[in-house]
């Protein structure tokens, strides 16, 4: 099965317990053409594993995808999950919480989108926005962050108890790369719809936001629910790393086709 080896994955992924200052340009000895070929070869195996997950209906997979503006969350979802079946697959985008959502617990809008057994769900932005972006947007105070992190840890434990396997991924890009991607959006009329005034503010605050996220990632790095820090300056590397992490989760499930008693025999069918 053509995913990246655990050794190479460990070399490519950053360590959330240190900081986000690691080089987002790192290539890990891989190249564009080879990575694209490897990803294409991996997709049929991922589809087969998705069918197994759906047929067994025991566990569920939940992928939390986080990162700065322009980190490529949408692109990673398109590239890695486009080969999967839409049956049993859901993608949920989370923007700033609405007034009604702010009036309830910050985790409630995520609870409503959890996958059932046999399903895969992707969260484009994660509940950790409640401990990071909500602070910069003025929706919570610094004093509330420790309590929110404790709620998030309890939520992750709850997911595990319900048979929902969680993959937490942070896409790391540099400030220079973010600026280049924002510039491309400004120059391409087809991408103007992606821009808002808050994007410029967030870019100006890049270092402060990155430092805050580094603290959040370090504080929430738990053996039972670790963060996977992907260098995302290069989209082709980002996609192969994410697909390989997904493949590793499937491997850990060690799935086999269910073999229930047959409701009727071939002979009965032939006589019908």
UniProtKB/TrEMBL annotation:
Coiled coil: none annotated. Pfam families: PPK2. The keyword Kinase applies. Residues 31-250 form the Polyphosphate kinase-2-related domain. PANTHER family: POLYPHOSPHATE:AMP PHOSPHOTRANSFERASE, POLYPHOSPHATE:AMP PHOSPHOTRANSFERASE-RELATED. Belongs to the polyphosphate kinase 2 (PPK2) family. Class I subfamily. This is Polyphosphate kinase-2-related domain-containing protein. It comes from Geopseudomonas aromaticivorans.
């Amino acid at each position: 099965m053509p995913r990246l080896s655990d050794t190479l994955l460990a070399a490519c992924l950053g360590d959330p317990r240190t900081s986000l200052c690691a080089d987002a340009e790192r290539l890990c000895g891989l190249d564009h053409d080879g990575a694209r070929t490897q990803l294409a070869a991996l997709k049929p195996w991922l589809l087969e594993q998705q069918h197994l997950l759906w047929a067994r209906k025991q566990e569920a997979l939940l992928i939390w995808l986080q990162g700065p503006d322009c980190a490529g969350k949408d692109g990673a979802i398109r590239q890695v999950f486009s080969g999967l079946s839409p049956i049993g697959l859901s993608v949920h985008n989370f923007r700033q919480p609405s007034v009604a959502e702010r009036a309830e617990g910050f985790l409630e809008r995520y609870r409503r989108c959890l996958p059932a057994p046999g399903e895969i769900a992707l969260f484009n932005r994660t509940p950790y926005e409640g401990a990071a972006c909500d602070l910069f947007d003025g929706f919570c105070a610094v004093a509330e962050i420790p309590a929110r992190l404790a709620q998030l840890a309890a939520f992750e434990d709850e997911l595990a108890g319900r048979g929902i396997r969680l993959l937490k991924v942070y896409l790391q890009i540099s400030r220079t790369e973010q600026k280049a991607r924002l510039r491309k959006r400004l120059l391409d009329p087809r991408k103007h719809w992606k821009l808002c005034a808050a994007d410029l503010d967030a870019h100006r605050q890049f270092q402060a936001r990155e430092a805050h996220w580094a603290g959040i990632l370090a504080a929430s790095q738990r053996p039972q629910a670790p963060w996977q820090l992907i260098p995302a300056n290069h989209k082709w590397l980002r996609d192969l790393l994410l697909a390989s992490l997904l493949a590793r989760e499937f491997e850990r499930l060690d799935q086999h086709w269910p073999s229930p008693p047959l409701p009727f025999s071939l002979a009965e069918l032939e006589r019908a």
